[in-house]
């Protein structure tokens, strides 16, 4: 099944279930939000998020280094080169915008949630913002997903404890972790401190079990590394970083 949606490239990976706050100020994405606001409130206001492989989340808006005479990049493909599909990773996630609030200066405050994985088939740059033809990807459980999820949760709790200890703060035990294997796999993928290529690899795993197996190896390796580190940056386990855009 294919679908065409507005495309929002970011320097981060969005997973199903992850909350995504956006501060939208570039004109191409402001145009996207104005278009989404035309959708009735009772219907989903959907757009697709893909991680940038090669390019810039925010296009240059003024001359700068290394060439101070370079002209600012404009238009829907600004920062992504002549063939934007090559600038993006091939698997992304549909986002459902629960809140789109326009500020007095014309910028937008957006709060969206990842819903479904999609494969990027093509990109259309003929309008004021990028749109893409996307193929929805089913989430297959794979073999032994339930048992793997239990092992990942045990390792993830140890990982959390190590993070809390490295930051010299106590770990809150009030929040209940899920037990559905696919939900576990996405929560852990989003919460771990990993680089974008590794998170992208987890997003595009062929099934839940494969993602959980990968996460189990990563958790054991990262927990071992944390033992030797004096401190770590803070992270939030349910929200991604607010985009500059």
What's the layout of helices and strands?
Layout: E1 2-10, E2 19-24, H1 27-36, E3 46-51, E4 91-102, E5 108-124, E6 131-136, H2 145-166, H3 181-191, H4 196-203, H5 208-226
Parallel strand pairs: 1-3
Antiparallel strand pairs: 1-6, 2-5, 3-4, 4-5, 5-6
Helix pairs in contact: 2-3, 2-5, 3-5
Domain Lon N-terminal: 5-223
Protein name: ATP-dependent protease
GO molecular function: peptidase activity
Considering the chains and any ligands shown, give keywords for the structure.
245 residues, alpha+beta, Archaeosine Trna-guanine Transglycosylase, Chain: A, domain 4, Methane Monooxygenase Hydroxylase, Chain G, domain 1, 2 domains, elongated, Lon_prtase_N_sf
Describe this entry's structure for a reader.
With 245 residues, the chain is α+β, with helices and mostly antiparallel strands. α2 runs parallel beside α3 (181-191) and α2 packs parallel to α5 (208-226). It is built from 5 helices and 6 strands, in the order ββαββββαααα. The two termini are 30 Å apart. It has helices at 27-36, 145-166, 181-191, 196-203, 208-226, and strands at 2-10, 19-24, 46-51, 91-102, 108-124, 131-136. The chain has 2 domains: 2-56 and 75-136, LON domain-like (Archaeosine Trna-guanine Transglycosylase, Chain: A, domain 4, Roll), CATH 2.30.130; 145-166 and 177-228, Methane Monooxygenase Hydroxylase, Chain G, domain 1 (Up-down Bundle), CATH 1.20.58. The longest helix has 22 residues, at 145-166. 29% of the residues lie in helices and 23% in strands. Strands 1-3-4-5-6 form a 5-stranded mixed β-barrel.
């Amino acid at each position: 099944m294919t679908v065409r949606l507005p495309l929002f490239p970011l320097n981060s990976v969005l997973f199903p279930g992850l909350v995504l706050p956006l501060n939208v100020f570039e004109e191409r994405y402001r145009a996207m939000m104005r278009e989404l606001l035309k959708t009735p409130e009772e219907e989903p206001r959907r757009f697709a998020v893909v991680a940038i492989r090669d390019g810039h989340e925010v296009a240059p808006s003024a001359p700068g280094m290394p060439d101070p005479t370079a002209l600012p990049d404009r238009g829907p493909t600004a920062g992504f080169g002549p063939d934007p599909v090559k600038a993006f990773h091939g698997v992304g996630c549909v986002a459902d915008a629960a809140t789109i609030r326009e500020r007095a200066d014309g910028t937008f405050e957006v709060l969206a949630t990842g819903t479904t994985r999609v494969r990027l088939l093509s990109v259309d740059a003929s309008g004021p913002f990028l749109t893409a033809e996307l193929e929805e990807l089913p989430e297959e459980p794979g073999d032994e997903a339930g048992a793997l999820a239990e092992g990942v949760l045990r390792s993830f709790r140890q990982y959390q404890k190590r993070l809390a200890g490295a930051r010299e703060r106590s770990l809150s035990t009030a929040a209940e972790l899920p037990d559905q294997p696919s939900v576990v796999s996405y929560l852990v993928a989003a919460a771990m401190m990993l680089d974008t290529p590794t998170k992208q690899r987890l997003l595009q795993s062929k099934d839940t079990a494969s993602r959980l197996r990968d996460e189990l190896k990563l958790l054991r390796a990262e927990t071992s590394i944390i033992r030797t580190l004096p401190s770590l940056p803070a992270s939030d386990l349910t929200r991604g970083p607010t985009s500059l855009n």
